[in-house]
Design a protein that fits this description.
Family: Belongs to the CbxX/CfxQ family.
Distance between the termini: 57 Å
Mean pLDDT: 84
Shape: elongated
Number of strands: 67
Largest sheet: 37 strands, parallel
Number of helices: 13
Radius of gyration: 35 Å
Keywords: ATP-binding, Nucleotide-binding, Repeat
Pfam family, one: Beta_helix
Helix content: 10-25%
Protein name: Sporulation protein
InterPro entries: AAA+_ATPase, AAA_lid_6, ATPase_AAA_core, Beta_helix, Carb-bd_sugar_hydrolysis-dom, CbxX/CfxQ, CbxX/CfxQ_RuBisCO_ESX, P-loop_NTPase
Structural class: alpha/beta
Strand content: 35-45%
C-alpha cells in the first residue's frame, strides 16, 4: 500500500490557528500540529519514525482500524512524549535493540493499537510516563511484550499480549503499572514479572496462560498484587517469588501447572485470600528459607496430578493456613527442618492418599480446630526435635490417627480420633508425646498403641469401641531403662474385654518382645493376648557379651572403617582391663568420641552399640543411650542452660550421652547465645564424672571440625574422630533388601536392578538421608504396593509380598 496523505483538522476557535490542511508525511503533520489538533491518517504504510511531542490526537480513518501501518526499517516506530491520543494504528517494529512503541513522558492514551514486532519490547513505558493503554494487542515473538521501566506507570485495560519471546509483561527498576482485564499468553518467558526494589505490579481480572516459564514471577524486593486473576497452563511454576519479594493474591485461580503452583523462597512474603490452587504436578505451595512466609485465608488446594505434598514448608520458613481446604492430594502438609513452622486454624485436610500432616527434622506444626479426614495417616511427628500441638482437632476415617516416632514430642490435646482402620494413636522408636483429654472411638485396631517402652504421657484420655482394645503397651525389651514406658493418668475405656487404664501416673509397660520398627509393629499385629496395662517387667536378662554386640555391629550394612575404629577401641579397652587384672599398667584410653558424617549413616545406632560394648566390658554400669540436641540443653534465660545440661548428663549416668548436631551449641555468630554455657557445663561434668558417662558429639563433618577448632576445651576431651561415609547404591539396596526380609516382602525380578539405578540417580545433596532414604524408599514402595494390591479382588501370596520396580517413587 502506498503512503497516503495526512489531514490535520484544527479543533480550536481562535482565528489565528491553522485551518484544515494536508501533509505529505506524518512527521511534517506532527511538526505543524498544535495541542488539541486531530490528525486523521489516510490508509497506507508509513516508513517513518514518529515522535509525538504535543497533546494531539493521531488516528486512522474511522472504520478503518489497522489500515494505517507505521513500519520504519529500524529504530523506534512510535515515540510518545506528551498527553496525546494515539488510536487505531498498526505499528511494526524491526529493531531488536529498540521498542516498537516507546512512551517516555506525559499521560497519553493508546487506544486500539496493534503492535506486531520483532523488537526488544512491543510497548515500553519509561520514567515519568503514565499512559492509559486500552484494547491494544502486542505480538512480539522476539522480545518482551510490554515493558514498564525506570519508575514508569500507567494503566493497561483490556490489552492482550498474544506472543512474546521473553516475558509477557516485565516491570523493573521502580515501575508500577496497573493491568485490568488483560490477557497474556504464548510468552517464552514468565507471563508477568516484577523485579527490583520499588517495582510494583497490580493486576485485576487478568489471565496468564500458555507460557514457557512461570506464570507470575516477583523477585528482588519487588511487590505485586493480583485480584481475580487466572494463571494456568505454564511449563514451569505457576507463581515464583524470590529474594524479599512480596505478593498478594486475592480471589485468584492457579491451575494446570506441571511444577509447583506457587514457589517462594529467600525471605519472600505471600498472602493468599479466597484463592484456589489445583491440578499441580509438584507442590501446591512450596515455601523455603528463614524469613519466608505464607499467609493463606479461605483458600483451597486440591486435585494434585503428581506425587508430592500439597504444602511444603522447609529450611526455616513459616506458613499460616486459616479456614483453608486441602484435599485430593498425595500428602497434604509437610513441614521439615529446624526453625520451620506451620500454623493451621479451622481448616480441612481430606482425601489424602498418604500423610495429612508430616513434621520432621526439628520442625513445628500447630493445628487448632482442624478436621483431618480420609488419610492414610492423620498426623505424623517423625523425629527428634519435631513437635508442636494439635488442639481441638478431629481425625476421622484415617488409617492411623496420629503417629509419633524417633524422639518427636508433640502435644495432642482435646482431640478426637474417630474410626481409624488400624490405630488411633501409634508411638514407637523412642517417640514421646503428650496426649491430654483425647478420645479414640471405633478403631478397627487399638485405641492407643505405644511400643518400644516409649515415654509417652496419656492423661484423661478415653477409648470407645476399639476392636483390639483401648490401650496396648509393649516395652523395649530387657535392656530398657527403668524409667521407660508411658505415663498414664485418669484414662478410661469402655471395652468390656479389654483393660481399664490405670488410675495413677505409673509407668505402663507391656511385656511383649522388642519392636522391629514402624512397619514391623503396625497396630493390629500382636502375638499374645492383651494383658493388664501395668505388667511386671520381670527379672532383667543378662547383658550381651561384647562379642555378641560386635556381631550386631558387623551385621550393619557398610561402615567398614567405622567397624574397624570401634573394634580397635574395644580391643584397647579389653587388653587394658586384662593388664590391670595381671597387675600391669594399662594405657589410658579416652572413651569420648566425635562422630562426623551426613544424616542417616548410622551414627546413633553405632553410639548405642558402643555403649552396650562398654557395659559388657565393665567400663559403664548400664551402657544405655541418651540422645539430646541443642534444644534439650540450651535454655531461654541465664542459668537454665546449666540446669538442662546437668539433667541430661544425669540421665546418661552409667551410659552414653549422644549430642546430635553438637556444632549448633557454638554457632558462627554466637553473640549472647547460651550455647557456650552448655559447652562450659559439659566440659566440667566430663572432668568431674569422667568414669560415669561417655560423651559422643555428632554432626556434619565440616561443621564439627569448626566446632572443635573454636572450642579447644571440648576438643581436648575426645580421643578420636570417627567419620561415617555416605552409603553407595549397592549398600542402599542391601538396606532395602533387609527391610523387605524383616517385613516379609520380596523383591520381584528386576526390582533390585531398578533400585540400584534409582539410588545412583537420586540427588546426593545436603538433604540426602543415606540409610533413612533407603528406609523411606522401602516405606514408599510398601505404600504404592498397598495401593496397587488393594484393587485386586483375590490377591495371591505373590501379589501380597512382591515389590516391583513400578512401586518405586518418582525421583524429585
Amino acid at each position: 500500500m502506498a503512503q497516503g496523505t495526512v489531514q490535520v483538522t484544527h479543533t480550536g476557535t481562535s482565528r489565528w490557528r491553522r485551518r484544515t490542511g494536508e501533509y505529505a508525511s506524518l512527521a511534517a503533520a506532527l511538526e505543524a500540529a498544535a495541542d488539541g489538533d486531530v490528525l486523521t491518517v489516510a490508509p497506507g504504510t508509513y516508513r517513518e519514525n514518529l515522535v509525538v511531542q504535543r497533546a494531539v490526537t493521531l488516528r486512522g480513518p474511522e472504520g478503518g482500524q489497522g489500515s494505517v501501518r507505521i513500519a520504519p526499517v529500524d529504530g523506534v516506530p512510535l515515540t510518545v512524549r506528551a498527553a496525546a491520543v494515539i488510536q487505531d494504528l498498526h505499528v511494526e517494529g524491526q529493531d531488536a535493540a529498540a521498542p516498537a512503541v516507546l512512551v517516555e513522558d506525559g499521560t497519553p492514551e493508546l487506544l486500539g493499537l496493534r503492535v506486531v514486532a520483532r523488537s526488544a519490547s512491543g510497548i515500553e513505558v519509561r520514567g515519568g510516563a503514565r499512559p492509559t493503554v486500552r484494547r491494544c494487542t502486542v505480538d512480539n515473538p522476539a522480545g518482551v511484550g510490554i515493558a514498564v521501566l525506570d519508575g514508569g506507570g500507567g494503566v493497561f485495560e483490556e490489552c492482550e499480549v498474544v506472543s512474546a519471546g521473553q516475558a509477557g509483561v516485565a516491570v523493573r527498576s521502580g515501575a508500577h503499572p496497573r493491568l485490568e482485564r488483560c490477557r497474556i499468553h504464548h510468552a517464552a518467558g514468565s507471563g508477568l514479572t516484577a523485579t527490583g526494589e520499588g517495582s510494583a505490579l497490580e493486576a485485576v481480572g487478568c489471565e496468564v496462560y500458555e507460557v514457557r516459564g512461570s506464570g507470575v514471577q516477583v523477585t528482588g524486593r519487588a511487590t505485586a498484587h493480583l485480584t481475580d486473576c487466572d494463571v494456568h497452563r505454564t511449563t514451569s511454576d505457576g507463581v515464583t517469588l524470590d529474594t524479599d519479594a512480596v505478593l498478594t493474591l486475592a480471589d485468584c485461580r492457579i491451575h494446570d501447572i506441571p511444577e509447583n503452583a506457587v514457589d517462594l523462597r529467600s525471605r519472600s512474603v505471600l498472602t493468599l485470600t479466597r484463592t484456589t490452587v489445583r491440578q499441580f504436578g509438584r507442590n501446591g505451595l512450596s515455601v523455603w528459607d528463614p524469613g519466608t512466609r505464607v499467609d493463606a485465608n479461605q483458600c483451597e488446594i486440591f486435585d494434585s496430578t503428581g506425587d508430592y505434598p500439597a504444602v511444603w514448608v522447609s529450611d526455616g520458613a513459616t506458613a499460616v493456613l486459616d479456614s483453608c481446604r486441602v484435599h485430593d492430594v498425595p500428602d497434604a502438609l509437610f513441614v521439615l527442618d529446624r526453625g520451620s513452622r506451620v500454623d493451621v486454624v479451622d481448616s480441612d485436610l481430606s482425601q489424602v492418599r498418604n500423610t495429612a500432616v508430616s513434621v520432621s527434622d526439628g520442625a513445628i506444626a500447630q493445628l487448632d480446630d482442624c478436621r483431618i479426614r480420609d488419610a492414610a495417616t492423620g498426623a505424623w511427628f517423625r523425629d527428634h526435635g519435631s513437635g508442636g500441638t494439635l488442639s481441638n482437632c478431629t481425625l476421622d476415617g484415617n488409617r492411623t490417627g496420629v503417629i509419633v516416632t524417633k524422639g518427636a514430642d508433640p502435644t495432642i490435646e482435646r482431640c478426637t480420633v474417630d474410626s481409624p482402620s488400624e490405630a488411633g494413636v501409634y508411638v514407637s522408636a523412642g517417640g514421646r508425646g503428650s496426649f491430654l483429654g483425647c478420645r479414640v472411638t471405633g478403631s478397627a485396631g487399638y485405641g492407643f498403641h505405644v511400643i518400644d517402652g516409649c515415654r509417652t504421657t496419656l492423661r484423661k484420655c478415653r477409648t470407645e469401641r476399639c476392636a483390639r482394645g483401648g490401650y496396648e503397651f509393649a516395652d523395649a525389651g530387657p535392656d530398657a531403662a527403668s524409667d521407660s514406658g508411658p505415663l498414664v493418668e485418669d484414662c478410661t475405656s469402655d471395652e468390656s474385654g479389654g483393660p481399664a487404664a490405670p488410675p495413677a501416673p505409673e509407668p505402663a509397660v507391656q511385656t511383649t518382645g522388642p519392636s522391629t520398627g514402624l512397619l514391623g509393629s503396625i497396630p493390629g499385629q500382636r502375638s499374645t493376648e492383651q494383658e493388664s496395662l501395668i505388667a511386671d517387667a520381670g527379672p532383667q536378662e543378662p547383658a550381651r557379651t561384647s562379642k555378641a554386640v560386635l556381631g550386631e555391629l558387623d551385621a550393619l550394612v557398610g561402615l567398614d572403617s567405622v567397624k574397624r575404629e570401634v573394634r580397635a577401641l574395644t580391643d584397647m579397652i579389653e587388653v587394658g582391663r586384662r593388664r590391670q587384672q595381671a597387675g600391669l599398667k594399662a594405657a589410658s584410653v579416652k572413651r569420648h568420641l566425635v562422630f562426623t558424617g551426613s544424616p542417616g549413616t548410622g551414627k546413633t545406632t553405632v553410639a548405642r552399640l558402643y555403649g552396650e560394648i562398654l557395659a559388657s566390658l565393665g567400663v559403664l554400669d548400664k551402657g544405655h543411650l541418651v540422645e539430646v540436641s541443642r534444644v534439650d540443653l540450651v535454655g531461654e534465660h541465664i542459668g537454665s542452660t546449666a540446669i538442662r545440661t546437668q539433667e541430661a548428663f544425669q540421665r546418661a549416668h552409667g551410659g552414653v550421652l549422644f549430642i546430635d548436631e553438637a556444632y549448633a551449641l557454638s554457632p558462627e555468630d554466637a553473640g549472647r547465645d547460651f550455647g557456650k554455657e552448655a559447652i562450659d557445663t559439659l566440659v566440667k561434668l566430663m572432668e568431674d564424672q569422667r568414669d560415669a558417662v561417655v560423651v559422643i558429639v555428632a554432626g556434619y563433618t565440616a561443621e564439627m571440625e569448626r566446632f572443635l577448632s573454636v572450642n579447644p576445651g571440648v576438643a581436648s576431651r575426645f580421643s578420636r574422630t570417627i567419620t561415617f561415609g555416605d552409603y553407595g547404591p549397592e549398600e542402599l539396596l542391601r538396606i532395602v533388601q533387609q527391610q523387605a526380609d524383616e517385613h516379609e516382602y520380596r523383591l520381584a525380578p528386576g526390582t533390585a536392578e531398578a533400585l540400584t539405578k534409582y539410588f545412583t540417580a537420586i540427588p546426593k545433596g545436603p538433604a540426602f538421608g543415606n540409610g533413612r532414604t533407603a528406609r523411606q524408599t522401602f516405606e514408599a514402595m510398601v505404600e504404592r504396593h498397598a495401593s496397587r494390591v488393594a484393587q485386586l479382588t483375590d490377591p495371591s501370596t505373590d501379589d501380597l509380598t512382591l515389590l516391583y520396580a513400578e512401586d518405586l517413587p518418582e525421583l524429585s
